[in-house]
Design goal:
homodimer; alpha+beta; Arc Repressor Mutant, subunit A; 8-stranded mixed sheet; 6 helices; 25% helix; elongated; disordered C terminus; DNA-binding
Chain lengths: 242, 242
DNA sequence: AAAATAGTGTCTATGAGACACTATAGT
DNA sequence: ACTATAGTGTCTCATAGACACTATTTT
């Protein structure tokens, strides 16, 4: 950062955007909220909601604006993911995008999906464990959608990040309604990790984590013993490092 | 990303830079390679090596160029850290920076430090565990240096990332020469984590990890039983998820 | 009562911490 | 021989998986 601003403005510099991989849980599977592009490039393809960063707007502010304007959402969990800056990633010119991911309970999307060309698309993760790589988004018939730009990679990076994080950070709760059972939470973890989880030790681990606050209420209208409903307790006791 | 480029160029857009937190291990402590700023703003303060991203250059390419031009380094371990975009972070105007961190063995810096105003500064991490926050850089007398921009936060984020990563990813090796003993590696981990580590289980864990290749050679010129020298074996067998 | 899931108690396997003991270099 | 660190073997403790058993709701 040696040159001053007057020097800089003589040269063209990259455009800066934010894109949001908005994930939720639907029918026990990860879904992404995508929108259908009308204009070129990638007309007809699906893309993440995104937008250019204004000159007087922080990156999180830009994300909040995009979520409000394009999805009608507010107050959702958002975290920075990665910045994608390959020279050829946008055929219109040089656009570097700071990708964020957002997690919401599917119920919060009811209003958003009614508005415009937003679609909830099931994700098909073609790699195991924490390996990584691009991810497919499927339409209602289970056929892979064409994804604009490098958005398949951004979605893949999101899943990879979630898989690495869910075991030690309280992110699973963001995909659930305020009250949920232990089985609900287990199914979130299974959907994210893409593999079955031991039920017994999951129960013990989560109950011991201090992240669950009992509500005293039970799940209603089930044809068997009802499960206890919990609430997410922010600020679990800091787990010291071994 | 709805508007096309001709629309965009009518509006001023943020400048884009990369900054590199280059860390190494020296005297059993984490050090950062900083350079002294001559010009305003923050004249006289220490800053991370960095530079603006050219229009036809990817982000990793920009980092490689910065490391070469400003530090005389090449072939070092580099990873993207986080993107910092607060509106007021650069008094000259709107500059968003994609921060990277680099890890090098201290021996690789001999040439770099001779060139120009680069200084190796000991880091003082004022927070425990993986808590996070800004970090201080100390001069040769142990006094805190003034750090330019938000570079104290970038350095803090780097330490936080390393602490979270060193237990399951092979990053410690990047701070060591090609051949090293188990005690060398343990001291790297202790410097990064900022707390003592159990020697016995560290040995067992690392030997079982498949990341160490025995060289058959021994550390020479020590006044006690010499330790075996190991080499880092890339691509340890993938550890399956539980 | 039957079906189905919730929740408890206990045994076992694995990995980390602790520590005693042996090994091998320089002085 | 002495000192200092390298390296081995074993005991204990904490946690995860496995599984048997009990509990509680609707039909």
């Amino acid at each position: 950062m040696e040159a001053d601003e007057t020097d800089l403005d003589r040269h063209p510099h990259p455009h800066l955007a934010v894109d949001v991989a908005l994930l939720t849980l639907h029918e026990r599977a990860l879904h992404a909220l995508l929108l259908r592009r009308d204009a070129a490039p990638f007309a007809g393809a699906a893309s993440l909601p995104g937008g250019f960063v204004h000159i007087d707007e922080s990156l999180p502010d830009a994300v909040v604006r995009v979520l409000r304007e394009k999805c009608g959402l507010h107050g959702v969990f958002v975290e920075q993911l990665f910045t994608f800056g390959d020279v050829g990633r946008d055929p219109r010119g040089r656009v570097v995008t700071v990708a964020y991911y957002a997690l919401v309970p599917v119920a919060a999307l009811a209003a958003a999906r009614a508005t415009g060309e937003l679609t909830l698309c099931r994700l098909d993760v073609p790699w195991p464990q924490t390996q990584g790589g691009p991810v497919r988004a499927l339409d209602a018939n289970g056929k892979p959608l064409r994804l604009a730009f490098d958005h398949d990679v951004i979605l893949g990076t999101t899943v990879q990040r979630l898989r690495g994080k869910i075991d030690y950070a309280p992110v699973g709760f963001e995909l659930l309604p305020p009250q949920f059972t232990l089985l609900d939470l287990l199914e979130v973890h299974q959907a994210v990790l893409g593999c079955p989880i031991n039920k017994d030790s999951f129960r013990r681990r989560l109950l011991a984590s201090g992240l669950l606050a009992p509500t005293g209420r039970l799940r209603a209208n089930v044809a068997h013993r009802p499960a206890a409903l919990f609430r997410f307790r922010r600020k679990g006791r800091g787990k010291g490092h071994a």
